[in-house]
Design brief:
Blueprint: E1 3-6, E2 13-22, E3 39-47, E4 54-62, E5 74-77, E6 79-86, E7 89-95, E8 98-101
Parallel strand pairs: 4-7
Antiparallel strand pairs: 1-6, 2-3, 3-4, 5-8, 6-7
Length: 127
Amino acid sequence: MEEKPIDASRLGTIRCEIAPEPRTTLEGDQRRDREGNPLWITGLTVRRLEGRRVDAIDVTTVGQPQGLAEGAEVKVTNLWARDWALEGRTGTTYRADAIAPATGAGAGSTPAAPAAAGSRGKSGGDS
């Protein structure tokens, strides 16, 4: 399926809802990318610029994001979405190069830029 970059600067306020935790297999082992780096999953909420709508997404990163506090605003670097379908189930997974605490006034999220094709992976809980 196609991977789509997301311009995070157009999303509005992004907050850490659930602190980073290891992304695991059904057997409880920590998942790794193709290069063997550990994957982490962070629960984020996104409040759109217009209106009162808030969406929750789980975002996978290579390596553990540092300095995130639940409820605090964050910035997301190179956010990507990928739609998937497996055995009659469908969903969207999200992957980012980094998630960091937002600092200073107006510290929004940075726009997505293309990354190496082999560095993307599934971030949802289904496998």
